[in-house]
Structure formats: C-alpha cells, structure tokens
Design brief:
By secondary structure, the chain is mostly helical.
C-alpha cells in the first residue's frame, strides 16, 4: 500500500532534485522516497536509544547516575 503526500520544496532544492532525477533516470518521487527512507534509518535508532537511556537513568539507583543538579553544582 502507498500513500500520497504533498511536499513543498524551495526552488533551489526542486532544481537540484530535478537535475538528479534526470541524471539518474529516476523520478523525483523515487529519489525523495529513497532519501526519506535513508533519513528514517539513520535517525529512528537514535531516538529509541535516547528514550531507553532516559528510562534507565530515571529508574536507576542514585549511585549509578549523577543527576543534573549535582552536575551543575559540581
């Protein structure tokens, strides 16, 4: 299943995308989808790791992590 999405691009970005599409014989939609997939792959894991680290810090014993107020005071 696919979904249609509208995307606003400034003129420079649109020109660059158009040029790349012509040079690679791919559609702008294909290149945009590939770029979005790459962006998600590069960023989703980071957000998940941060959430897990915050949960770990929030539930840890006081001797395992140093809270922000202590760090600031130090």
């Amino acid at each position: 299943m696919t979904t249609t999405m509208t995307l606003r691009l400034d003129d420079e970005t649109n020109d660059r995308l158009s040029n790349l599409a012509r040079a690679t014989d791919r559609s702008k939609a294909y290149l945009t989808t590939q770029a979005l997939k790459l962006f998600l792959a590069n960023n989703e894991w980071q957000v998940q790791e941060i959430k897990e680290a915050v949960t770990e810090a929030d539930t840890a014993n006081s001797n395992e992590f140093v809270d922000n107020d202590t760090v600031i005071a130090w």
